[in-house]
């Protein structure tokens, strides 16, 4: 049968596509010598294609920290990995990269990943290897809490090898609900998610908080992250005519095009709010939400799952600008903070220890210990028994037509001021 | 080689004669409208137009797949990338000419549109011919897997050329067609949708006329049916195959311009997804059959819109590829494909 064979060929071709697109790993050369121990910080972020506005500023934060802070007795270089495949973050690629980092004995600490779906694939790897990873940006609740989190840590259920300095989507969703209900003043909303770990979790966090506030969800929809044409969803919005739209998902899933098509059909008067997945730079940043949405950027809101009012914001921004000649991204400071946490842990545990495997475990145990706290660019950060940050602040942003960028307007701490 | 799948028109069913095809299309459209209307209510008309528009884009790309398969039995996996490159050609042209938004003067608009389509279609047509000459011709008598893998290689090359030399991220293309709603009695349609649908239909009718009414078209059909016999009858095989690549790639180039006009964005990696859908359309319709490819494109457009209209948007791809599986099980040659002998 000709066509069944043809089907097999297609399947084969798809496999080839997948297999051929793995990225090369530029292993940093170790500059050992002079009595110092050569070690590495792994960076596992999406660095290319539509993900560049996410990964690059975050990785820059790590590089900035390493250039400013030294630990006596160690030469620290970077082992950089990229989990973007064809310009989009890819969970399998993330797990492969994490395997490479775990097998590199000099890697004592990893910063990353950016996306929760990638973290889901990586946590079992780092848990088994006992290699601590610090995510600057992951927010999905299921990564650290509940049965799903225990299932991810199946090799060593009691050992935490994954911590994050971004807070979780129950808080970020509450921030979105706060914006939609109070800032926009919409008592009912249309909710979209991109079917990914992060997007579904954020939409759920939003729905929980929004109904608690008294809001009504008119309709939900989940266009898959491979959708390239949103016109039918946009037309459906016309029928519902919601006072606001909330989106759980990331820009690479297509929300920029979605908003652009809303503008094309004359629906920019309906406000759209989303999480940190769309807070990815100004309209001048290639591939960012605002860049793609164009005219549709009017009336849009976003949040960042990190503290905005950091202790010395001007110094950090100035240092960053001096080194990279551009403004920091939303998760540059959290990337910097992860690195600070590692370096402080390394200082605390390294006296007399030269064995890399022992150092790796000592660093992991020190960071994961809930009794420790760290001085970072974000302020004081500690981790609870699940590995979640003790900071529960969400920053709110609104699009500003003059700046053509997100402009911060409010920060809310959901420990001190929860949704009631 | 017992070749069968001809580049040509649909075989007419003897019972209804020559009217079976238009009547079938009309009945299908009415049924599809009813299905869409049942889910979309007041938005029925808009959703129907959305489906026709996206279907038209898939159909334009699918035509190139099916033409190449019809003539040399190669699944040209680089075809989606040709579409992608076409969108970059139109982006380059429009931004070089200094346009950034809608053009209100209809004469200037018409001129720019003609220029954009002409440039993109000719450039991509030539690229298609070059690909055939460089990559596929010398493999024409090789085992089938060799040209297939070569095609995948060519798609990587095209993707990476754009990735390295132009842009590794999503870029915005000026949407030069102003987008008012035009009303024809009870039918309200946006200008861009009308433009895309009419353009696709005109190109398809033109292609069909070319294949069935001209000497070169006859050469293409005869080469598809039996290459050696056609050669013995004096058909220049190399020119005919090159011509097929030119036309197929030019249609993909046109679809690339439409991508820019309709969506306003492009990226180095859009070819894979679009190519996969268009390939599915070609197989659904009966690969090797141009009318089938056009129908397959519209079928996919409707499947996507219908799944979203009924609130099952997340299943839209399952619907598309599920339909492909069903067709391959119950009608392995596709909707309009003829029974084919084993030839692999």
Explain what this protein looks like in three dimensions:
- The complex is a heterodimer of chains A (420) and B (344).
- Chain A is built from 13 helices and 16 strands.
- Chain A is α/β, with parallel strands linked by helices.
- Chain A folds into two domains: 30-168 and 313-382, Response regulator (Rossmann fold); 169-304 and 393-413, Rossmann fold (3-Layer(aba) Sandwich), CATH 3.40.50.2300.
- In chain A, helix 2 (52-68) runs parallel beside helix 12 (332-349) and helix 12 packs across helix 13.
- Chain A is globular, with a radius of gyration of 21 Å.
- Chain B is 69% helix and 3% strand.
- Mean pLDDT of chain B is 89; it is low at 1-6, 8-14 and 339-344.
- In chain B, strands 1-4 form a two-stranded antiparallel sheet.
- Chain B has helices at residues 20-40, 44-72, 79-96, 106-136, 145-165, 191-213, 215-225, 227-232, 237-263, 270-285, 290-309, 316-330; strands at residues 171-172, 181-184, 187-190, 265-266.
- In chain B, helix 1 packs across helix 2 (44-72).
- Chain B has a single domain, classed as ABC transporter involved in vitamin B12 uptake, BtuC.
- Chain B has twelve helices and four strands.
- The interface between A and B is large, with 49 and 57 residues.
């Amino acid at each position: 049968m000709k066509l069944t064979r043809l089907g097999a060929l297609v399947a084969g071709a798809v496999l080839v596509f997948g297999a051929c697109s793995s990225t090369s790993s530029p292993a940093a050369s170790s500059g050992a010598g002079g009595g110092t121990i050569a070690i590495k910080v792994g960076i596992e972020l999406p660095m290319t294609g539509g993900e560049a506005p996410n990964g690059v500023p975050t990785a820059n934060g790590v590089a900035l920290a390493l250039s400013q802070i030294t630990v006596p007795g160690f030469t620290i270089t970077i082992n950089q990995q990229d989990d973007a495949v064809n310009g989009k973050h890819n969970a399998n690629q993330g797990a492969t990269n994490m395997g490479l980092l775990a097998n590199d004995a000099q890697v004592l600490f990893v910063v990353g990943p950016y996306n929760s779906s990638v973290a889901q694939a990586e946590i079992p790897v780092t848990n088994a290897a006992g290699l601590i990873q610090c995510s600057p940006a992951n927010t999905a609740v299921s990564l650290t809490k509940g049965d799903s989190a225990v299932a991810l840590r199946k090799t060593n259920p009691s050992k935490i090898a994954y911590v994050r300095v971004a807070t979780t989507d129950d808080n970020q969703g509450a921030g979105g609900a706060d914006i939609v209900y109070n800032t926009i003043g919409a008592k009912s909303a249309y909710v979209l998610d991109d079917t990914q770990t992060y997007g579904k979790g954020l939409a759920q966090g939003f729905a929980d908080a929004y109904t608690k506030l008294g809001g009504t969800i008119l309709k939900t929809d989940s266009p898959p992250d491979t959708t390239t044409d949103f016109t039918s969803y946009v037309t459906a919005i016309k029928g519902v005519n919601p006072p606001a739209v909330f989106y759980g998902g990331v820009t690479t899933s297509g929300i920029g095009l979605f908003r652009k098509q809303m503008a094309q059909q004359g629906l920019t008067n309906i406000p759209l709010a989303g999480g940190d997945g769309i807070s990815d730079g100004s309209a001048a940043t290639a591939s960012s939400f605002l860049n793609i949405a164009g005219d549709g950027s009017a009336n849009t809101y976003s949040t960042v799952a990190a503290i905005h009012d950091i202790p010395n914001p001007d110094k950090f921004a100035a240092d960053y600008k001096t080194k990279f000649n551009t403004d920091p991204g939303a998760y540059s400071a959290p990337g910097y903070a992860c690195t600070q946490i590692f370096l402080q842990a390394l200082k605390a545990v390294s006296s007399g220890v030269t064995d890399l495997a022992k150092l790796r475990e000592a660093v992991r145990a020190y960071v994961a210990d809930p009794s420790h706290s760290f001085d970072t660019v974000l302020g004081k950060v500690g981790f609870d028994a699940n590995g979640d940050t003790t900071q529960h602040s969400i920053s709110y942003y609104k699009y500003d037509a003059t700046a053509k960028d997100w402009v911060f307007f409010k920060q809310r701490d959901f420990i001190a001021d929860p949704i009631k | 080689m017992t070749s069968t799948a001809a580049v040509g028109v649909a075989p007419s069913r003897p019972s209804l004669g020559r009217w079976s095809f238009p009547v079938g299309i009309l009945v299908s459209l009415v049924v599809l409208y009813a299905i869409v209307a049942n889910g979309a209510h007041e938005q029925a008309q808009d959703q129907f137009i959305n489906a026709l528009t996206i279907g038209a884009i898939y159909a334009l790309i699918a035509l190139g797949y099916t033409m190449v398969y019809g003539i040399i039995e190669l699944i040209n996996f680089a075809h989606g990338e040709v579409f992608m490159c076409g969108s970059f050609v139109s982006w380059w042209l429009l931004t070089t000419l200094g346009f950034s938004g809608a053009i209100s003067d209809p004469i200037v608009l018409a001129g720019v549109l003609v220029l954009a389509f002409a440039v993109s279609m000719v450039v991509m047509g030539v690229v298609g011919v070059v690909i055939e000459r460089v990559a596929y011709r010398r493999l024409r008598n090789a085992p089938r897997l060799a040209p297939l893998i070569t095609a995948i290689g060519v798609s990587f090359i095209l993707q990476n050329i754009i990735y390295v030399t132009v842009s590794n991220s999503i870029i915005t293309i000026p949407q030069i067609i102003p987008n008012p709603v035009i009303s024809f009695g009870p039918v309200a349609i946006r200008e861009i949708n009308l433009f895309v649908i009419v353009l696709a239909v005109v190109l398809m009718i033109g292609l069909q006329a070319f294949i069935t009414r001209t000497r070169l078209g006859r050469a293409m059909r005869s080469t598809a049916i039996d290459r050696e016999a056609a050669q013995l009858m004096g058909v220049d095989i190399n020119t005919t195959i090159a011509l097929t690549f030119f036309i197929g790639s030019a249609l993909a180039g046109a679809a690339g311009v439409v991508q820019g006009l309709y969506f306003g964005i492009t990226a180095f990696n859009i070819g894979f997804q679009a190519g996969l859908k268009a390939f599915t359309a070609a197989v659904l319709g009966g690969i090797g059959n141009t009318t089938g490819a056009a129908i397959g494109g519209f079928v996919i457009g409707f499947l996507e819109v219908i799944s979203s209209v009924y609130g099952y948007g997340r299943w839209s791809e399952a619907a598309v590829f599920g339909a492909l599986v069903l067709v391959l099980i119950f009608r392995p040659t596709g909707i309009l494909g003829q029974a084919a002998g084993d030839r692999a």
